[in-house]
């Protein structure tokens, strides 16, 4: 299959998703103040994309679903670690997060899109794929890891919004 056939055979929604995700990744390079709700969109997009693919892919079964769950768990840990190491502040009153510019979201978006695109092409051009072939399980794992990383970062931002009671000067710990 030629590159041109692959590009022409790709559904329009995939290109729209790529443009949207690239816009989010490029805006993350600059940093800035963002409403907390807007930061939820990328984790939701990646989680929904992965889960829908698992549900709709005829070759996906319990192994691919387990790979997604394990990947999401590992990704949550990595995402939380990344967020804790980055500089950010929250404004509880306005429910916004101020983030320093970072290439991490753009890199994750590009790697994820490229790997899922490649796996999608492989699944589309392969002979009937046996249930839970390596491609489907790998797709589930990658999808889960990335959804988990973005969700882990978002979770740390959310946790920072919890009100932290101030200690009284005479309180002993």
Any overview of this molecule?
The chain is mostly helical and 173 residues long. The chain has one domain (3-160). It has helices at 3-9, 12-30, 36-39, 41-56, 62-85, 104-125, 134-160, and strands spanning 32-35, 88-91, 96-99. The chain has a 3-stranded antiparallel β-sheet. A hairpin with a 4-residue loop joins strand 2 (88-91) and strand 3.
Whole-number tally of structural domains: 1
Strand order of the largest sheet: 1-3-2
Largest sheet: 3 strands, antiparallel
Quote the average pLDDT: 85
Question: Beta fraction of the residues?
Answer: 5-15%
Number of E-state strands:
3
H-E order: HHEHHHEEHH
Looking at how many chains there are and whether they match, the oligomeric state comes to single chain
How many helical stretches?
A: 7
Radius of gyration: 19 Å
Helix share, percent: 55-70%
Terminus-to-terminus distance: 67 Å
Structural class: mainly alpha
Low-pLDDT parts are: none
């Amino acid at each position: 299959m030629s590159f041109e056939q692959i590009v022409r055979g790709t559904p329009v929604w995939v290109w729209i998703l790529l443009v949207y995700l690239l816009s989010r990744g490029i805006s993350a390079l600059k940093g800035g103040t963002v409403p907390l709700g807007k930061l939820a969109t990328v984790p939701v997009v990646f989680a929904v994309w992965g889960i829908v693919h698992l549900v709709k892919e005829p070759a996906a079964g319990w192994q691919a679903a387990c790979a997604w769950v394990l990947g999401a768990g590992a990704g949550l840990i990595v995402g939380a670690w990344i967020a804790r190491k980055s500089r950010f502040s929250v404004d509880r009153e306005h429910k916004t997060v101020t983030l320093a510019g970072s290439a991490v979201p753009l890199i994750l978006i590009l790697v994820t899109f490229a790997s899922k695109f490649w796996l999608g092409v492989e699944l589309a051009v392969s002979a009937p794929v046996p249930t839970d072939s390596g491609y489907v399980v790998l797709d589930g794992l990658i999808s889960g890891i990335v959804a988990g990383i973005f969700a882990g970062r978002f979770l740390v931002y959310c946790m920072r919004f919890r009100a932290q009671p101030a200690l009284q000067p005479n309180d002993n710990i």
